[in-house]
Amino acid sequence: MAAAGVTTTLDRLRRSGFVALLGFALLGFVGIWLVVNLVKTPTEFVNIALIGLTYGAIYGLVALGYTLVYGILQLINFAHGDVFALSGLVSFTTIVSVLGLDRDASVLAIVGGMVATLLVIMAIFAVVNATIELVAYRRLRRSPRLAVLITAVGMSFIIQNISLATYGVNFRSIPSFVPRSEVIGIGDVTYSWNKLAVLLITIPVLVLLTWFVRETKQGKAMRAVAQDTEASAMMGINVNRTISVTFAIAGALAGAAAIVYLLQFNIRYDTGFELGLIAFTAAVVGGIGNLSGAVLGALVIGFVQAFNEGLTWYTPGSDWTRSIVFGILIVILVFRPEGLLGERTPEGA
Amino acid sequence: MTGVEARLRSYGLGALLALGLLLLAFLYPQYVESLGDLPLVGDYIPSLSSMVIMLIVTAMALGLNIVVGYAGLLDLGYVAFYAAGAYAAAWFASQQFEQWTFHFGSVGISKELPGIHLSIWLVLIIAGVFTALAGILIGLPTLRLRGDYLAIVTLGFGEIVPQVVRNGDNVFGFDLTHGTFGITPIDSPGFGSVGDSLGLPLSYQQSFEREQWFYWTALALLLVTVFCSRRLRDSRLGRAWIAIREDETAAAAMGVPLMRTKTWSYAIGAFFGGVAGAFYASFRSGAFPADFYFNFSIFLLCMVILGGMGSIWGVILGGMILGYLNVAGLATIGSKVQSGTGWDWFEPTKFQFGIYGIIIVLMMLLRPEGLIPERRHKRELELGVADTPLYDVTHEGADTDREPRND
Rounded to two decimals, what is the model's pTM? Predict the structure, then answer.
């Protein structure tokens, strides 16, 4: 018996050693590829890295929504990406039609209008997301997890079609108020205002979220429920309200992400589907359920996307971005299901 | 004789109903035109070619049912198997590989035509086996994951495969998939000159009764799938799948080899998807990357959920209903309502996935066991499962000591 135990242990060691070797080899290749690209085209490399940072910030905001909900309900909220897209379209209406901002407006009007839109959209979509939970997921708490997951897929299609019915198939974009002129320029490396604006919104939101989860009573309740639902219920935590609050925060983050996204790109009804999948991948890469992991994963995915689409030396190109991102997702789930920062969960084991 | 009689009696009404339906289905080409002339409902009757597509998607849904319904593994990337089957058909029965000329049992085309041309009957099997192998390849690394992680990984594969297909026109200089154009034409099924002398069509596409022959073949394909599904469900393997679905830990403790059993469900589910996909490609005479999108996976999943996970009759019903809505129904209803009421905004085809989404959510909330529930699965939903439970809000107390629900 002991001998059999030893052989299986040896076998496992050898196998994990091989897998680790494979992993390091792969990482090594990626490292070499990055260095060669850096040496060949240093200016582009840095510029592309800055684009990656912008992508990462946007993905991070969306990924946090996935990871918060997953942490507390162990549910992949497929509808999250579509909530993001819908909030982007609504913010488009708010900025362009309601506030009537355009490029000629004064700086004060633009900044004030954007901040007002941000707050309004975050509030609206906090309510929307909490309502989705109330209507669709709450009744399924007792059901097998598969049932909730399938419902989430259904909700995703419903919300996507609400966007389609309201806004049609055209891409929407806001006028580029934020100038693309540079904030800092060293040689040909430029960092423009519109990229900085993304960080100017993202970083305060992240700080606020961290403060909320760490310091407030409600944040403590969220962490407790995520850790052990039953025990926290016994300690007098209102579990249902905590779950609603979590969904509300996730919705607010999606709203913030959508406005940030609008500053850079245009949006339409199905933008949320793919972006949602990428953001979810980011959450898994960082370790799902882990807040800083989500941001880290989002940065990794953002850089991967930017480098893949921007670099020139032996680069697969944008045709392959989706495959690469999902390839990373599969590799991470298979070899390190707990993610870069997460703890090993029974689900992933 | 008495044995047959006794068996028939034990099947009872169900068998009679099945035979009647089968007869009606078999004779459909004879009376479809007279049905179309009926007042009021005539316009809603699906044409023969619509019926072919409905039967094929139902066969695919039955394949998905093996994975989702029997083994309880949520597969959100089933479209990958459809794509694999369609492209296998395209590789072995078209002019795609012009550098090689090889004919074996090809019908209705010149023997000098370049490319690989095997008999479609053979190609269906090859496509099934190829897709099953693809299923095993996808399954081996991912089936260790449970539940929702598996769902997201299959979704990932479902997204990767179409992109690979779209970009596969230059794999190190080799044109594997012909890129966004897809591969067309694909050879037609047929019985060759031997069949011709027996009164069977030489080649379906060149036959005057093209749709009728495709219809009967699709019906046969569906029947084979139903037969296999039934036999598999009652087999040792099928019982192992259901045991895993109901309680993975208990199944493992009882000696069910988890990985092997799950991989088999993937392989067999993929096999049927591949065969149906290859037949569909032959019917449409092409494999086009635009067909292989995520929504199709959800469309099939919706059929399984609507009918009832694990229930063969249910999936057939769900598949025919949604297949009909997708192919003809929504368009007909939309144009009828538009011309009747003048509501220009009424475009059900544009919002068909919203409609499917509503169906999914409503079914999950109100009737999770489906239209025609499978007995065991219904009990599972009523009594709850030993899956990691979510917090129970409607009942006091921990989930571990809960009583069966009586509402």
Answer: 0.84
